[in-house]
C-alpha cells in the first residue's frame, strides 16, 4: 500500500514536528527548572532581607536595653539627650564655636564604630568613666575641653572625615549640621521618588514621581515566589528611573553635594548599582505624595542627635 504521508511529503514534516515537540518539552522542562531555581533564590533573598530587618530591630532593642542596664549599674546617664534642628541647633553650634580655651585645650574628633580607642587620644583622663557614654553615642562628632567642663556628642546629618584635633577652639562647620549653600536632596523609596535643588533651606527646583510597585504580599492569582519576582523587577525599574532622574539633576548642578534620604536598603541598592556617590545618606520615614514627602524627608535629614555627657 502507498504511504500517503510519504507520497505527499508529509512524513518528513511529521518527523520534524515530533522533533520540535520533543525539543519544546526539553526547553519547557529547563524553563521550569530555572524558574524553580530563581523562585528558590528569590524566596531565600526575601527571607534573608526579612531576617536582616528582624535582626536590626533586635539589635536596636538590645542596644537600648544594654544602655539602660549600664545606666542602672553605673549610674551614668546623659545630662541631656534630644534631637534638634533649625534655630535651636544653629544656636548650639554657634555657642560651641564661640568657646575659647588655652592652646590645644579643645578637642574635636569624629568617633566612628571603631570606638574611642581608635582615636589615639586619652579621653578617659578627661572624662573618666563617662567615656563609656561617648562610646555609646558613636558614630558622632565629640567636643571636649581639657578641663572637662564641656563634653558633647553630636550626630550631624553630614558626618565629616576629620582627624582628632586639639586647638584653642572647636573645629565645627555649619554645613555639617545646617542646610547651607546649594545642594541636591532626594527621597528614594521602593515606589516613590522626589528630588529638590535647594539654596539653604529653600527649595528652588523639584521633580518627583511614583511607580506602580506591588505590595509585599500576593493577594491571589500568583504564587508568592512569582509575585516577589514581579515586584523585584518593578522595584529595579523604579530605581533605574530614580538613577536617571538624579543624573539629570546633577548634570544641571555640577559640583553640587548630593544627599539621599529614604529606605536604607533601597538607598544602598541605588548607590551600589548606579555608581552615585552621595555626600551623606539618612534613613527617614517619609511617606505620602512625592512633594510633601520630600519636605518631611528634608526636615528629618537636617536633624542632629545631641548628647551632653
UniProtKB/TrEMBL annotation:
The keyword Iron does not apply. Residues 182-306 form the Actinobacteria/chloroflexi VLRF1 release factor domain. It comes from Natrarchaeobaculum sulfurireducens. The lineage of its organism: Archaea, Methanobacteriati, Methanobacteriota, Stenosarchaea group, Halobacteria. The keyword Metal-binding does not apply. Residues 10-72 form a coiled coil. This is Peptide chain release factor. Keywords: Coiled coil.
Amino acid at each position: 500500500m502507498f504511504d500517503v504521508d510519504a507520497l505527499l511529503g508529509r512524513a518528513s514534516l511529521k518527523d520534524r514536528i515530533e522533533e520540535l515537540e520533543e525539543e519544546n518539552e526539553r526547553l519547557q522542562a529547563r524553563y521550569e527548572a530555572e524558574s524553580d531555581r530563581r523562585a528558590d533564590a528569590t524566596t531565600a533573598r526575601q527571607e534573608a532581607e526579612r531576617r536582616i530587618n528582624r535582626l536590626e530591630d533586635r539589635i536596636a532593642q538590645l542596644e537600648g536595653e544594654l544602655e539602660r542596664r549600664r545606666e542602672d549599674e553605673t549610674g551614668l546617664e546623659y545630662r541631656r539627650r534630644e534631637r534638634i534642628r533649625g534655630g535651636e541647633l544653629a544656636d548650639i553650634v554657634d555657642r560651641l564655636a564661640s568657646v575659647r580655651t588655652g592652646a590645644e585645650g579643645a578637642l574635636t574628633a569624629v568617633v566612628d564604630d571603631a570606638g574611642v580607642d581608635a582615636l589615639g587620644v586619652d579621653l578617659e583622663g578627661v572624662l573618666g568613666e563617662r567615656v563609656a557614654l561617648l562610646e555609646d553615642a558613636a558614630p558622632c562628632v565629640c567636643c571636649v575641653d581639657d578641663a572637662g567642663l564641656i563634653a558633647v556628642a553630636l550626630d550631624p546629618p553630614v558626618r565629616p572625615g576629620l582627624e582628632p584635633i586639639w586647638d584653642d577652639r572647636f573645629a565645627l562647620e555649619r554645613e555639617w549640621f545646617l542646610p547651607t549653600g546649594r545642594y541636591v536632596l532626594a527621597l528614594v523609596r521602593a515606589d516613590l521618588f522626589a528630588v529638590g535643588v535647594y539654596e539653604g533651606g529653600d527649595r528652588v527646583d523639584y521633580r518627583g514621581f511614583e511607580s506602580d510597585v506591588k505590595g509585599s504580599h500576593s493577594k491571589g492569582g500568583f504564587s508568592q515566589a512569582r509575585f516577589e519576582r514581579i515586584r523585584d523587577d518593578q522595584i529595579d525599574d523604579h530605581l533605574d528611573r530614580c538613577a536617571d532622574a538624579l543624573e539629570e539633576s546633577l548634570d544641571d548642578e555640577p559640583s553640587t553635594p548630593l544627599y539621599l534620604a529614604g529606605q536604607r536598603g533601597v538607598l544602598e541598592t541605588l548607590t551600589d548599582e548606579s555608581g552615585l556617590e552621595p555626600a551623606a545618606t539618612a534613613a527617614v520615614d517619609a511617606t505620602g505624595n512625592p512633594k510633601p514627602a520630600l519636605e518631611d524627608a528634608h526636615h528629618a535629614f537636617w536633624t542632629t542627635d545631641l548628647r551632653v555627657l
